[in-house]
Amino acid sequence: MRKPLSVLLVLLVSVAMVLAACGQGNSGSGSGSSSPAASPSPSPSGSSAPSPSPSESPKIDYPTKAIELIVPFAAGGGTDAVGRATAEALKKELGVDVVVVNKTGGGGAVGMQDGLSAKPDGYTITVVTREVVSLPLLGQAPFQTMDFRFIGNVNRDPAVLVVPTDSPYQTAEALIEAIKNKPGSLKFAASVVPNYYGIQFAEAAGLDFITIPFNGAAPAIVELLGKRADFGIYNPGEVKAQVDGGNLKPLAVMAEERFPGFPDVPTFREIGYDIVSGTYRGLAVPKETPEEIVKILEDALAKAVEDPDLIAFMENSFLGRQYMDSETYTKFIEEDIKILTPIIEIAKQQM
Prior knowledge:
This protein is α/β, with parallel strands linked by helices and 351 residues long. It has two domains: 67-157 and 279-350, D-Maltodextrin-Binding Protein, domain 2, CATH 3.40.190.150; 158-271, 3-Layer(aba) Sandwich (D-Maltodextrin-Binding Protein, domain 2), CATH 3.40.190. The chain contains eleven helices and ten strands. It has helices at 2-31, 78-94, 109-117, 131-138, 172-181, 196-205, 217-225, 236-244, 291-304, 308-316, 326-350, and strands at residues 67-71, 98-102, 124-128, 148-164, 187-190, 210-213, 232-234, 248-254, 278-286, 321-324. The strands form two sheets. Strands 1, 2, 3, 4, 7, 8, 9 and 10 form an eight-stranded mixed β-sheet that branches. The protein has a two-stranded parallel sheet with strand order 5-6. Strand 5 (187-190), helix 6 and strand 6 (210-213) form a beta-alpha-beta unit. It is globular. It starts with a helix and ends with a helix.
């Protein structure tokens, strides 16, 4: 009997030892002070630290090198002048060189397409004119107007109706009446054909006149001064010298408000015709350009147009200074598409 009893005692001692060991393990895990399972390690990103807000994100490092400004017309013209003056003012704001590059051809289409095809990194900017709207509508450009992202507008000049100073028509009303009384007789010296100014004038006032085409305003004005034409419609800078010299008389401007350079000349709206037309020059980049870069350029342009040197140049050159921010300029372009679409349909019939 002793043998079974001793065996039983051994078994009881073994069970007691096991139970004691289990009790120690349970008390340790319950404390949560030393068990990795109970206290997991923090994530590598540091879960206790808040994520940075978008406003705390590092700013884009732009610009860090020279910027190319494409002027889609030849050196020496009005667009080139505005482009170079704007480039100098932007240089001061951006802190890098802004280099003007003239890329001509296709009535502006070649240069604008080159700008549109450039890498959308903010280092290629394009000067766009009204041709950014007219060329696609005419089917003469490999791009569409809204392929661009518009940064802002710099210059806007209304078209001006002029006659020789000794013309028998000393007011716009008198000229319009004469054209209506002699349909198909009076002559318009056009700086280019199709001429959107002439078409808009004819359509709004219900006129029929002869359009004589010329390659630029200069030869057209010579025709007008030689009395071989009765009237012309040009930009203010193109006629300023002749107006100041007493050779031409402005009769009306195609603008919402009177042009500061000709304060005594009424708008067409003042005499009963809703005609607003002219030229404008602004800046654009490829549409894929990052928003941060667009914002930097927009802010720089807003300051550049207030640069005293640019203001003096524009005033001395008789160029209208009209700034529009990106949003306003984009809406302005969209509205001009609506204005030009019916005019260009008429122009196509004349081509």
